[in-house]
């Protein structure tokens, strides 16, 4: 019983101990972006922004899906290929960036948008409803490469 009591005492002291100052993020570290930090854009606002040529649209689906049909003017940045070589190009854009995918809750578009935001790409948003809502609403579709 005595070893168990000593072990229990050690466990209680570890739980009750204040955190070490060495733990946790450095005060100089940049805050990490989370999915909650990336805003969504409604389909109505997206359509308005497109009509004013005020958005850079990024399709994060596969290259094959992009070629089968995409939102007119969208560029292809497939999630599976990563963001290598894309970040600087997207950072230099003067328009808000809207990512989209064909996932039920925009998971892939959100992953790319969050990753871009973490790399200081300004004004990145996710299209609510993505490709599926766009296509099902009868909006225009392009099959041309861009």
Structure explained in plain terms:
The longest helix has 15 residues, at 2-16. This protein has one domain: Rhodanese-like domain (Oxidized Rhodanese, domain 1). The chain contains 6 helices and 5 strands; from the N terminus they run αβαβαβαβαβα. Helix content is 37%, strand content 11%. The chain is of the alpha/beta class and 146 residues long. It has a 5-stranded parallel sheet with strand order 1-5-4-2-3. It has helices spanning 2-16, 43-51, 63-68, 87-91, 107-118, 130-136; strands spanning 40-41, 56-59, 75-76, 97-100, 124-127. It is globular and about 40 Å long.
Widest sheet: strand order? 1-5-4-2-3
Number of helices: 6
Distance linking N and C termini: 73 Å
Percent helix, as a range, is: 25-40%
Please identify the top-level CATH class. Answer: Alpha Beta
What general outline do the C-alpha atoms trace? globular
Q: How much of the polypeptide forms β-strand, as a percent range? A: 5-15%
| Biggest sheet architecture | 5 strands, parallel
Features:
Oxidized Rhodanese, domain 1; 146 residues; five-stranded parallel beta sheet; 6 helices; globular; alpha/beta; 5 strands
Quick structural gist:
The protein is of the alpha/beta class and 146 residues long. 37% of the residues lie in helices and 11% in strands. The protein has one domain (26-136): 3-Layer(aba) Sandwich (Oxidized Rhodanese, domain 1), CATH 3.40.250.10.
């Amino acid at each position: 019983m005595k070893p168990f009591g000593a072990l229990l005492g050690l466990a209680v002291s570890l739980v009750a101990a204040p955190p070490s100052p060495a733990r946790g993020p450095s005060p100089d570290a940049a805050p990490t972006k989370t999915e909650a930090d990336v805003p969504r854009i409604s389909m109505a606002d997206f359509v308005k922004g497109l009509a004013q040529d005020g958005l850079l649209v990024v399709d994060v689906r596969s290259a094959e899906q992009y070629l089968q049909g995409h939102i007119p003017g969208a560029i292809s940045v497939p999630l599976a290929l990563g963001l290598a070589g894309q970040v600087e190009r997207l950072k230099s854009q003067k328009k808000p960036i809207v990512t989209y995918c064909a996932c039920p809750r925009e998971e892939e578009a959100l992953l790319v948008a969050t990753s871009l935001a973490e790399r200081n790409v300004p004004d990145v948003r996710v299209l609510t409803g993505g490709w599926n809502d766009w296509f099902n609403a009868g909006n225009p579709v392009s099959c041309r490469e861009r």
